[in-house]
User: What shape does this take?
Amino acid sequence: MKDIYWAEKELVKSLPKMEKNATSKKLKTAISSHLEETKQHVSRLEDIFRSIGVKAKAEKCNAMAGLLKEGKSIMEETEAGAIRDAGIIAASQKVEHYEIATYGTLAAFAKVLDHKDALKLLLETLKEEKSCDEKLTSIADTNLNSKAE
Assistant: This one.
């Protein structure tokens, strides 16, 4: 949990940069919306730490650091427009897939350890991460990828 806590906090810092670099209105809106959800994810993780009697502490997540670095490179190496937007979506979906895997695993652990409150919160976040991934796919499928071609 310490690494996903770090990851979510880093995303709160990174998402505004992604929104600023996106040109598609739908993508900007999706990023802005997910920023607000991500702030809630940080808060939920703090609630989960409390519910299991552990102090909330972030520990650098090398996987997320790498994904964020890749996303930053995409924004730096492309010009504003459909190609950059497609790159932002690709990088964002890698982040979402990492989060989906992490929250799914943590939910399984919470279930086995009978941490019912934690399980409920983890499943809520997992649902939101999956929804964000679906939104990104939808934006990419609505002509964005073909414009980037």
User: Anything to note?
Assistant: The mean pLDDT is 94. Residues 51 and 93 are 30 Å apart (CA to CA).
